[in-house]
Design goal:
1 helix, 46% strand, single chain, globular, mainly beta
Length: 127
């Protein structure tokens, strides 16, 4: 079992930056692939970024490549999403997710691969 708690969301102007954090409980955090997804009102949940259990492999959605960076600290049971050059289109609820059974880009980029989800943190980018 893994419990996930996101933090770091807020209101920022376009062009600004935010860093989201995801705190994970459990002693086997390093066994889990981790992902970030987002969902805007009236839209489907969208894949943003994922990182392998070791941190050696990362994947990004096309809409955030070059602007967002995912990282993890297994010693602290933390996953981070550094978001730069934010745009109003980035406004959404951001969710952290964990999967123990899947790895590789095909699975880590898919919502259905994840077993555990956080409650989400809101990011609002003003123009």
């Amino acid at each position: 079992q893994v419990q996930l708690v996101e933090s770091g969301g807020g209101l920022v102007q376009a062009g600004g930056s935010l860093r989201l954090s995801c705190a994970a409980s459990g002693r086997t955090f390093s066994d889990y692939g981790m992902g970030w997804f987002r969902q805007a009102p009236g839209k489907e949940r969208e894949f943003i970024a994922a990182i392998s259990w070791s941190g050696d492999s990362t994947h990004y959605g096309d809409s955030v490549k070059g602007r967002f960076t995912i990282s993890r600290d297994n010693a602290k049971n933390m996953v981070y999403l550094q978001m730069n050059s934010l745009e109003p289109e980035d406004t959404a609820a951001y969710y952290c997710a964990a999967t123990r059974y899947y790895s590789g880009s095909y699975y880590l980029t898919r919502e259905t691969s994840y077993n555990y989800w956080g409650q989400g943190t809101q990011v609002t980018v003003s123009s």
